[in-house]
């Protein structure tokens, strides 16, 4: 099992989401510690340990450290803003 941490910016982005999307993203975040690489996740190119999960038009971008068994969510953004 992995420890899950949210960066301060990710926490603010999470709080600003509409309730329906918040519920969907919260479901994914709850499953992340037991399954750090869920079906459909992708490793981001150009970054050594960044991964992303699609949830509708939103992306959960997180750093995965297998040695420390730690997942740190960096951003939860609309896809048009997620990679810029």
Task: Describe the overall structure.
The protein is α+β, with helices and mostly antiparallel strands and 84 residues long. It has one domain: RelE-like (YaeB-like fold). The chain has 3 helices and 5 strands; from the N terminus they run E-H-H-E-E-E-E-H. Strand 2 and strand 3 form a beta hairpin. The N and C termini lie far apart (31 Å). The mean pLDDT is 91.
Strand numbers in spatial order across the main sheet: 1-5-4-3-2
Radius of gyration: 12 Å
Q: Structural class from helices and strands?
A: alpha+beta
Helix content: 25-40%
Kindly provide the name of the CATH class: Alpha Beta
The separation of the N and C termini measures: 31 Å
Order of helices and strands: EHHEEEEH
CATH superfamily (homologous) name? RelE-like
Q: Give the overall pLDDT as a whole number.
A: 91
Quick summary:
By secondary structure, the protein is an alpha+beta fold. The protein has helices at 8-15, 19-31, 79-82; strands spanning 3-6, 42-43, 50-55, 58-65, 70-78. The protein has one domain (3-82): YaeB-like fold.
Observed structural traits:
five-stranded mixed β-sheet, 84 residues, 5 strands, YaeB-like fold, alpha+beta, 3 helices
Write the layout of secondary structure elements.
Blueprint: E1 3-6, H1 8-15, H2 19-31, E2 42-43, E3 50-55, E4 58-65, E5 70-78, H3 79-82
Parallel strand pairs: 1-5
Antiparallel strand pairs: 2-3, 3-4, 4-5
